[in-house]
C-alpha cells in the first residue's frame, strides 16, 4: 500500500517515497522503521484491544492522462483524448492528490481549476467542455437539465449546435411518441402526439370494435365498410409518416425545448440548483398522458356517436317534412 502523504504517528513527519516504512501487524498503522524500533511498540497500541484498524487520512483522487494537445484530463484507461481524439497511449499519468502538487507545466495546471471536480468528469460531459455555450445555456446546464441519458443526448446536441443538423434517430419516439414526450415533460408535443394518434387510428378502431357500438352506428359502419377501410388505410400510412417524423426530429425538438426552458429559467432568476428538478424525466407523466389519451379517444367517440345520432334525427325529420 502507498503511504505517501500520510504522517508517522511517532515523529509526525510525512512519509515520502524514500522512507523505510513498517506496518503494525495488528492494526495496520504505518511507522518509520527507526521510530518503530525506538518505541518498540505500535503508536496506536490502544487500537489492538478494540480491534480498530488504522484508516488513511489522505484520500487520493483519481489519476488522469492529460492530453498534450488540448490539456483535457482523461481516464487512465483511455487511449485517445475524449475531447480532441489525440492519441494518449504514451502520456504520463498525473496524480490529482490535493496533498501532492504535481510538477506539471502551467498549461496543464490551468486545466485543473478550482472547479476541477466538474471538469474532471469525462463520463458526465463525455470529454466536452462544461462551459461551452450551447445557444443560451452552458454544456453543464444542459447536462443537468437532461439528467439521464446524457451519453446519448450530449453528442447529438453538440452536433445540432455546431452543424445545424436536425434529423437524428430516436427509436423510443418512433414506437411510443406520446410516452416519450410526456416522460421528457414536453406536454405540448405529448398532447399533439396523443390527438394525432387517436384521430389516425379512429377508422381502424371503428372497424375493429363495430360490435361494441349501438345498432344504428354499427349498421352505418357495416354499410360503409369499404369506404371506412380505405380511409383506415390512408390513416395508417399517415400514422407511419407522423411516427417517422417524430423519430427523426424528436431529439431536435428536445434540444430546442431544453434551450428554451433553460433561457426561461435564467430570465426568471431561479437558482441553478433547480435545473435538475425542471428537466430530466418523470415516468409518472407516461401514466398521465395515457389516461389523457384514453380521455381524448372517449370524447372523439362520444362526439362521433352523438353527431351521427343528430344527423340521423335531422335526416328523419327532413323526410317527414317532405311527406
Automatic annotation (TrEMBL):
Q: Which InterPro entries match?
A: DUF2628, RING_finger_1_prok
Q: Which UniProt keywords apply?
A: Membrane, Transmembrane, Transmembrane helix
Membrane-spanning regions, if any? 187-210, 230-255, 286-308
The keyword Acyltransferase belongs to this UniProt entry's keyword annotation = no
Q: What is this protein called?
A: DUF2628 domain-containing protein
Species of origin: Ruminococcus flavefaciens
Instruction: Specify the taxonomic lineage.
Output: Bacteria, Bacillati, Bacillota, Clostridia, Eubacteriales
Amino acid at each position: 500500500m502507498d503511504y505517501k502523504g500520510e504522517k508517522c504517528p511517532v515523529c509526525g513527519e510525512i512519509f515520502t517515497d524514500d522512507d523505510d516504512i513498517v506496518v503494525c501487524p495488528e492494526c495496520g498503522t504505518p511507522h518509520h522503521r527507526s521510530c518503530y524500533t525506538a518505541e518498540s511498540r505500535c503508536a496506536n497500541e490502544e487500537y489492538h484491544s478494540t480491534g480498530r484498524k488504522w484508516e488513511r487520512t489522505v484520500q487520493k483522487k483519481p489519476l488522469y492522462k492529460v492530453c498534450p494537445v488540448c490539456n483535457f484530463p482523461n481516464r487512465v484507461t483511455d487511449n485517445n483524448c475524449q475531447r480532441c481524439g489525440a492519441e494518449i497511449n504514451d502520456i504520463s499519468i498525473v496524480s490529482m492528490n490535493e496533498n501532492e502538487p504535481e510538477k506539471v507545466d502551467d498549461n496543464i495546471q490551468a486545466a485543473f481549476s478550482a472547479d476541477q471536480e466538474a471538469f474532471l468528469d469525462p463520463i458526465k460531459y463525455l470529454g466536452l467542455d462544461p462551459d461551452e455555450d450551447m445557444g443560451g445555456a452552458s454544456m453543464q446546464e444542459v447536462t443537468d437539465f437532461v439528467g439521464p441519458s446524457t451519453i446519448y443526448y450530449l453528442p447529438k446536441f453538440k452536433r445540432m449546435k455546431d452543424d445545424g443538423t436536425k434529423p437524428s434517430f430516436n427509436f423510443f419516439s418512433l414506437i411510443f411518441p406520446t410516452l416519450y414526450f410526456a416522460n421528457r415533460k414536453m406536454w405540448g408535443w405529448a398532447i399533439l402526439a396523443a390527438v394525432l394518434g387517436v384521430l389516425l387510428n379512429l377508422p381502424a378502431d371503428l372497424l375493429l370494435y363495430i360490435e361494441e357500438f349501438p345498432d344504428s352506428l354499427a349498421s352505418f359502419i357495416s354499410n360503409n365498410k369499404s369506404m371506412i377501410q380505405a380511409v383506415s388505410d390512408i390513416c395508417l400510412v399517415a400514422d407511419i409518416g407522423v411516427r417517422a417524423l417524430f423519430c427523426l426530429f424528436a431529439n431536435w425538438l428536445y434540444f430546442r425545448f431544453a434551450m428554451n426552458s433553460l433561457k426561461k429559467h435564467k430570465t426568471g432568476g431561479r437558482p441553478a440548483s433547480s435545473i435538475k428538478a425542471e428537466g430530466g424525466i418523470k415516468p409518472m407523466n407516461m401514466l398521465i398522458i395515457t389516461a389523457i389519451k384514453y380521455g381524448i379517444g372517449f370524447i372523439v367517440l362520444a362526439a362521433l356517436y352523438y353527431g351521427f345520432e343528430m344527423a340521423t334525427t335531422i335526416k328523419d325529420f327532413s323526410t317527414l317534412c317532405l311527406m
